[in-house]
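Supplementary Note 3. Input sequence used for the single-chain structure prediction.
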Amino acid sequence: MKGAFRSLLVLIAALSAAAAWAATSAQAVEFEGRDGTRLGGWLMLPPQAPQGTVVALHGCGGLYARTGRRQGQLNARHQAMGELLVEQGYAVLFPDSFTARGVGEVCTQPLGNRPLNQVQRRHDALAALAWVAAQPWADARKIAVLGWSHGGSAVLSATDATHREVAAEPLRFATAIAFYPGCGAALKSGYRPNTRLAMMLGADDDWTPPGPCIELAKAVGAELEVYPGAVHDFDNPVGRPMLRTDVPNGVRPGQGVHVAPDPAARAHSYARVLELLRQAFAHG
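The predicted structure, written as discrete structure tokens, is reproduced below.
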């Protein structure tokens, strides 16, 4: 395993150093949500037939950069993941749960006041699964789901066999990967995954703390990567350490939460994502 990770880490370093990220071409798509909402999103395809597809679920800030030179485009975290996966021969679908519902972001809103919750995110993820499976270039047996933070919680919700609509869905994701999700609700509700689950956590995350996720992983047999010293958004390829005082939630409500890139944690987590996808799609 160490040898495989070492090779993948070399690949990550090469990709990061090479490009200053020339934008991978993404095409706008639309599909019907389970609640009747006409959802938009972005699809990235490799030059050859995809080896599998990843449905990638955005966090509470939405899909797009809100400031700076990338404003209105896929934010840097999404762009980087998309480019990594396309480079490896995977298709990537980024569904947009917010824009069609008139929502920009929900990070700065108290949890109880948010205009959408994990019910809508679950429905959107399942609709995305069905849309991908119906595409002529896709293999319905080789569709994974990945998400960050609010989208990481959506990964849990969309793979929870205790939810009626998940249990009734004839399709299922081949694997599920959640970056720093909130796990408290899943832990309380008796979450039971219907596929292999892996979570990537920051040991010092004070926005979505790792403790409930570690407990959940022990209860359901999920795989964990916990990165020492890492906080929320550790896989972001840009940015600087910040205390976000505009976020009212977290471990200390009203006192803000920390976000910071962590290049080592990012490189290892990216390598682990590629290994998990390779394993999930190998026998499809």
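The first helix runs from residue 2 to 19. Residues 1-23 have pLDDT under 50 and may be disordered.
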